[in-house]
Amino acid sequence: MLQVPVPPLPPVPPDIPEIIVSSMPFPPGVAYAIVGASMLVIGFIVLGPIGRAIGAGLQRLFGGQHAAGAGEIEELRREVAALHGRLRELEERQDFSERILAQAREQMLLPRQGRE
Against a cut of 0.70, is the pTM above it? Predict the structure, then answer.
């Protein structure tokens, strides 16, 4: 039977956190405070109102569910139709007022027959 020698064990890699801590120009306590504060800020951004706004924008951008439900959309359509009706009515009133003003101007510019 052929015997093969056991290969040597690979070297143990250095401890990564120890390398990071030893290469910093300030004490480890400050580094931990900076990391903790950074995590709090990032957590607030991701989970807070800014994160929700970013998430809603991404949903709209990539075709997620619409923010308004079907009932809200139908209600908005009815409101827009009502506003169109009011706008038409206001346009008619403005046209009428312009016609009345134009007639009044014409009557003031034309000489009256009884005076001259």
Answer: no
